[in-house]
Amino acid sequence: MPVTIGIPVPTTVNHVPERDAKVIKILLDTKIITIFAAAGRKRADSPRLSRMERNLLTHNIIQMRRKIVAGNWKMNTTVPEGRELAEALVAELPNVPADVQLIIAPPFTHLCSAGKAIEGSAIALSAQNCADQAKGAYTGEVSAAMLKSIGCGYVILGHSERRQYYGETSATLNAKMALALENGLKPIYCIGEKLEEREAGRHFDVVKAQIEEVLYTLTPEQMSQVVVAYEPVWAIGTGKTATSEQAQEIHAFVRKTIAAKFGQQIADDCSILYGGSCKPSNARELFARADIDGGLIGGAALKAADFIAIAQSY
Ligand code: PGA
Asked: Ligand 1: distance of its center to the CA of 294 in Å?
């Protein structure tokens, strides 16, 4: 008689650490276990779980949405400084909880050297942007395929600084998103309202439109590759952080908006990061919230000690 385990179908074996995935696969193949689509997010402390489910979750054999701490270096550091920073993070990695995925997003010029520094470690490499064209006569641009070819796993798309200073629109972002996904990069899609929009009480509408205009064009399979970062523009680089209540309120809304199009399971599996003056002193309170799955960190990602302290805030 097979035992049924609640592993959300879209995550299943793909999100499970490789070694454990093999075990699960053998159990599946030999029909010792079967898998069904579990409704809602499961937590190791949920009273509704069977003992076996709890054990699998506790030991990370099945994993729900990932905790992510991503460092957006923006246009900072020289190549040697960037390499040093990446090396310092690798050295500190044993002090970071194993279930927290660290990502660094250095400038384009640093991707090779910083990538080399983190090679073989659990830190993933991200770019801060990619071109909206596949290839060709686009002087100064860097394509998604180029980024993939040097080991990037992620690309930040739609950062408010790109929307604001470089005129990125939803149309541009649709093209970038499609190219990133076609080339096997996971987009970290940034959304968030400006100060005047929040003051006018329009923050939910703004965020909803940013989701609908870009993410709603994706297939469910593509959507399951996307990480979302909610970054209220008024909190970026200003020292003003959204309160954890404000952030949780929007994160829950973002998840609901994703669920409305793609279903609860994909929404539950999507990591939604908070960004905007996130630092060691406020990360713990933010990350404790049910729908905040980590952070996209700007200024505090430039100091290894601060970035690591943030990653330790779970
Ligand atoms: P900040 O930037 O942490 O410096 O506010 C966050 C971001 O823009 O990603």
From this structure: 13
35 and 78 in a common domain: no
User: How many Å lie between the centroid of ligand 1 and the Cα of residue 222?
Assistant: 26
Nearest CA to ligand 1 atom 9: 298
Are 26 and 154 within one domain? Answer: no
Q: Quick check: pTM over 0.90?
A: no
**Farthest CA pair distance, the chain:** 62
Same domain? For 122 and 168 the reply is: yes
Q: What digits encode the pLDDT tens for the residues 175-187?
A: 999 999 999 999 9
32 and 100 both lie in a single domain: no
Cα(194)–Cα(176) distance, integer angstroms: 23
Domain boundary among 58, 82, 99: 58
Tell me which residue range forms the domain holding 302.
67-311
Q: What is the pLDDT of residues 105-157, one digit of tens each?
A: 999 999 999 999 999 999 999 999 999 999 999 999 999 999 999 999 999 99
The three state secondary structure string of 109-171 is HHHHHHHHHHCCCCCEEEECCCCCCCCCCCCCCCCHHHHHHCCCCEEEECCHHHHHHCCCCHH
Atom of ligand 1 nearest to the CA of 296: 9
